[in-house]
Design a protein that fits this description.
Layout: E1 7-13, H1 20-36, E2 41-43, H2 71-83, E3 86-96, E4 99-107, E5 113-118, E6 124-125, E7 128-129, H3 130-133, E8 148-149, E9 160-162, E10 167-170, H4 179-187, E11 192-194, E12 200-201, H5 203-228, E13 231-234, E14 238-241, E15 249-252, E16 256-258, E17 264-267, E18 273-279, H6 281-290
Helix pairs in contact: 1-2
Length: 312
């Protein structure tokens, strides 16, 4: 049985303040509060420092983006170093002229920027007009971030990072509906999958579909934990965000941390919350010995999964 020590994670469920500076200051205080509760690895929500601007098409919103590294990430690098915590910082990234990504910076406990995960699955739904704003993550890259590992040793696409406290995988929001990302990231050696998220209800649909949507969202992520024998932690945005002419979105919270059996270790309702849980790598080994799903995979038979559709 593994002798690696347990690690304590926190996820922060919150909304945004009136300005980016105010949001960053409030987030820093929540990080410090999570650290005071013993958190060693802390993950923020998707696009943490801005309103969810993808409800409509507006070219002015590209101005929200900033490079990584950039001023926001640099400030949180200093916080990570001061507190000796690992931070997952989801942010709107300007990678280059006209190239923007929905990204998450991974900062180690010494303040070093280990690398960036870029959201692979980009939605195009009413009030979630993300294809206008984000290019999807690339499957490979010629640059190998320090501490990162992807398939065949390449960086880009699905990756894990060996941080001071744990090997972590990061995926973002819509990625959580796809078992392939969870499986690849788990096979790369992740102890825990983080899914920073901004998901909510269209107010007109909530009465009929609201409960089912929350249940489906949580069930999908619990299934990733069970099928792969890993911990999963998903911090969601919370609060109502209006936008003229749209009806707005009510982000429903319900963040969670689950163990490799899919059991809730910590969970939230709809308001602001910081969830903290201690994860023992020994449980990963125990689970996979008793539910050897990875051992019994028929890797010789899965070629057809590379097709978008199989049929007549």
């Amino acid at each position: 049985m593994t002798t690696r020590p347990p690690f304590t994670v926190a996820i922060i469920q919150d909304g945004v303040e009136s300005t980016a500076d105010a949001t960053l200051a409030a987030t820093e205080e929540r990080i410090r509060a999570a650290h005071s509760k013993g958190a060693q690895v802390i993950c923020l929500k998707e696009l943490f420092n801005a309103p969810y601007f993808c409800k409509t098409l507006d070219a002015a919103n590209f101005d929200i983006a900033e490079p990584v590294p950039g001023p926001t990430v640099a400030r949180l690098q200093a916080v990570a170093k001061e507190l000796a915590v690992v931070l997952v910082v989801p942010i709107y990234e300007r990678q280059g002229p006209g190239v923007y990504r929905n990204s998450a910076a991974v900062i180690d406990a010494d303040g070093e920027l280990l690398g960036v995960y870029r959201k692979m699955h980009i939605p195009h739904d009413p009030l979630f007009e993300e294809k206008y704003y984000f290019a999807p993550g690339e499957s490979t890259s010629s640059v190998q971030p320090k501490g990162a590992r992807g398939p065949d040793g390449e960086a880009g696409g699905f990756m894990v990072w060996k941080t001071r406290y744990a090997t972590i995988g990061v995926l973002i929001c819509r990625d959580q509906w796809y078992p392939e990302g969870a499986r690849i990231t788990s096979l790369l050696g992740a102890d825990i999958l983080f899914y920073p998220t901004a998901i909510g209800w269209h107010p007109a649909e909530k009465a009929e579909w609201g409960a089912a949507q929350v249940d489906a969202w949580r069930t999908a992520q619990r299934a990733h934990a069970i099928a792969n024998g890993v911990f999963v932690a998903s911090p969601n945005r919370t609060g109502f965000e209006a936008k003229a002419g749209t009806g707005g979105i009510e982000f429903f919270g319900h963040s969670m941390i689950v163990d490799p059996y899919g059991r809730y270790m910590a969970q939230a309702e709809t308001g602001e919350a910081t969830l903290v849980a201690t994860c023992d790598p020994a449980l990963i080994e125990y689970t996979r010995r008793n539910w050897p799903f990875l051992r019994d995979r028929r890797v010789d038979a899965y070629g057809p999964i590379l097709n978008r559709w199989i049929g007549s």
